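User: tokens in, sequence out, please.
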């Protein structure tokens, strides 16, 4: 399903989860109004509820090169893994970690049949743009050597959710411009692709009631890119990239949440790609909020999202 539906509403499971979150967290302050370390601690605690009953698989703690110093990373290796995906977690470029996204990365590895390597990049506001992007680029360039060390071969993709999807797309654009090896494919989950808070979905879902708000996105933006002169750069706002750059991207799989201020970003990116003659799928998951793929332990639509993205990757790898 594609398109913006202002009448979309939470499905029954999502409504029950939203009620639970209101009961458990309603007394807590907006984490983006706290000092960054306190906001991060609150985000870590809030995500702990989803990282239970973890799908079993081989894991390893790694160290990948970073922009100025090595960065922690984590390998998830399902049985008979072929190829690998570099995963960049979301959290407004400022929150979350390998731990908050542990279950999600396991689900991605299971669904795709590929190893997943998550990178713990530097976070804003202590490390504003381009620190997180630099760490992601350097980690991407080191990936083939890391995979060889672990006896892995096959296609290499990149993925991320929310701000992580922004970074993943920025990595692709930057590597393309630099003449470096691009990923074989990209999986982009409910990403932020422009510094634009006046879109239809921001106006409908941004004021509040659906988790992520426009006010939070503005604070995240100001933490990550405090200089407004950089907001229009394609490495910050990929929708500002020229047609030639977008048209030359590797195959992409895009999804979005129907009740998300960022929904219009994905729809706009999908429209740009289609206008260039590309056939990248754009899947809108109705009745769920931003970040819903964190909730696989409690939300069927989250499990569906991984299954569908994984199915696309498996079909892509069969043709590769």
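Assistant: Sequence out:
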């Amino acid at each position: 399903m594609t398109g913006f539906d202002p009448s979309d509403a939470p499905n029954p499971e999502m409504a029950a989860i939203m009620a639970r979150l209101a009961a458990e967290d309603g007394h807590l302050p907006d984490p983006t109004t706290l000092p960054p370390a306190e906001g991060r601690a609150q985000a870590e605690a809030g995500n702990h509820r989803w990282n239970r009953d973890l799908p079993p698989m081989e894991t390893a703690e790694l160290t990948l090169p970073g922009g100025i110093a090595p960065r922690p990373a984590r390998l998830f290796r399902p049985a008979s893994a072929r190829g690998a995906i570099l995963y960049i977690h979301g959290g407004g470029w400022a929150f979350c970690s390998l731990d908050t996204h542990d279950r999600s990365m396991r689900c991605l590895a299971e669904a795709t049949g590929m190893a997943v390597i998550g990178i713990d990049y530097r976070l804003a506001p202590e490390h504003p743009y381009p620190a997180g992007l630099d760490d992601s680029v350097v980690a991407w360039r080191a990936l083939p050597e890391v995979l060889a060390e672990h006896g892995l071969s096959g296609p290499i993709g990149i993925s991320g959710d929310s701000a992580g999807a922004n970074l993943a797309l920025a990595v692709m654009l930057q590597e393309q411009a630099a003449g470096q090896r691009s990923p074989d494919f990209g999986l982009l989950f409910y990403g932020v692709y422009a510094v634009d808070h006046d879109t239809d979905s921001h106006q409908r879902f941004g004021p509040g009631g659906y988790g992520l708000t426009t006010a939070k996105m503005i604070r995240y933006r100001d933490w990550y890119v405090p200089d407004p002169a950089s907001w229009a750069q394609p490495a910050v706002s990929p929708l500002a990239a020229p047609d030639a750059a977008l048209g030359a991207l590797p195959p992409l799989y895009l999804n979005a949440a129907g009740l998300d201020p960022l929904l219009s970003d994905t729809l706009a990116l999908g429209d740009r790609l289609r206008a260039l003659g590309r056939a990248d799928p754009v899947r809108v998951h109705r009745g769920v909020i931003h970040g819903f793929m964190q909730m696989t332990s409690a939300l069927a639509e989250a499990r569906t999202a991984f299954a569908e993205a994984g199915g696309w990757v498996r079909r892509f790898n069969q043709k590769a």
